[in-house]
Amino acid sequence: MYIMLNILSYLPIKRKKSSSGWISFNAVCCLHNGESLDKRSRGGLLLNGEYDWSYHCFNCNFKTGFTMGKPVGYKAKKLLKWLGVSSIDIDWMGIESLRHRNIADIIDDRSNSAPNTVIHFNEVKLPNGARLIVSDDVRFVDYLASRGLMYNQYPFMITPNDKARNKNRIIIPYTNKNKVVGYTSRFLDDRTPKYLNEQQHGYIFGIDLQHADWNVVIVMEGILDAISIDGVAVLHNKIGDLQAQQLQQLHRTVIVVPDQDKAGLKLIDSALINGFNVSIPKWGDSSIKDVNDAVVKFGKIATILKILKYANVSSIKIKLAKIELERALNK
Questions:
Q1: pLDDT tens digits along 82-123
Q2: How many domains, the chain?
Q3: 0.70 cut: is pTM over it?
Q4: Do 330 and 230 share a domain, yes or no?
Q5: Domain of residue 188, residue span
């Protein structure tokens, strides 16, 4: 008979237990998630009973846990492997856990679980004087054309009668359930920042524009990247927990395409944590740093086909592609 795995036996020898029950030690997850080696005991494990546990890294913010009677989750498996647990022992752990699951547990889980978590976003007002771009707005139309976009491809807006920088911006509204919940301002002058985002926590641009019959969702950092190929944008270089949850709830293949710069390396790490596919296309042109650049050079269809060609779910292959990209960036 299999003896249930004791996670304490795999923790580093150097560790400390607090009065609240947390066991702290040098986190094993940080290097795998793109951070520096932890030397300050920022990994924490909390036991709940004999076998249940929770883990939280206060450096790279990796979180996971295990509950007897339930499957061993993807992130829990990753942590166990990083601690040195063999794949065979992890598989047996999952089998033994489900062996303790009885009919009452299953019925209770089904009655208390919802198919999707609904995230509410507050409606916001667009800037005063905002109006849609029309063909006569030559400067703004030309800028969008230079990015491979038509001015009427999305409800792009401007505030030409506003003051200072605001008269030189393109406003891209964020929508959710037919209401505006935020926006991006893209300034066309030479000053920084180029973009200012009015974004609510957990929001993903374009997720409400995905078609029900699509079986792939392509995830990028930038909003113009997303519009270029009908994908979605997380609007920074990390996929938050609420964002990951929404992507998983689409029940389709998630392909993350990072910008090919140092910030994009963090988006790769975020995709690995969540078990998403990653695509790092070899564009054949060092000037192409993101999906929108590729669309300008190759067109929408060719860009999508290239993304699909280089998509990988294997964490080993993804990490190798990341190393190759990192080396290219450091040349």
A1: 999 988 888 888 877 877 765 555 555 544 544 566 789 999
A2: 3
A3: no
A4: yes
A5: 120-200
